[in-house]
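hey can u check if this looks right to u? its 99 residues, i copy pasted from the old doc so theres a chance i mangled smth
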Amino acid sequence: MDALSWLQDWYSQNCNGDWEHNFGVKIDTVDNPGWSVEINIVETNLEHEKFNSIEVERDEEDWYYCIVRDGVFHGAGGVRNLEEILTCFRQWASSQDRN
């Protein structure tokens, strides 16, 4: 399953008639150019889990970083790094399911 399909499933699993009205997922573009991802993890099984921030910088156009701050997974990256950002979230979230 690709990262986007997995994210759709994760989102669906967290929709409970209430959560989706206050929280959710935002994927946007930024002008450098690149991507911005925000995934709210409040009231999910990830809310209190530790996340080690990630920063990868291969060159000016091939980079991404991911952090969790104030109950939100934040990712940003170059124009071709969206899948890596989503995969980073997927790997972390999936590793918490095994604990």
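The radius of gyration is 13 Å.
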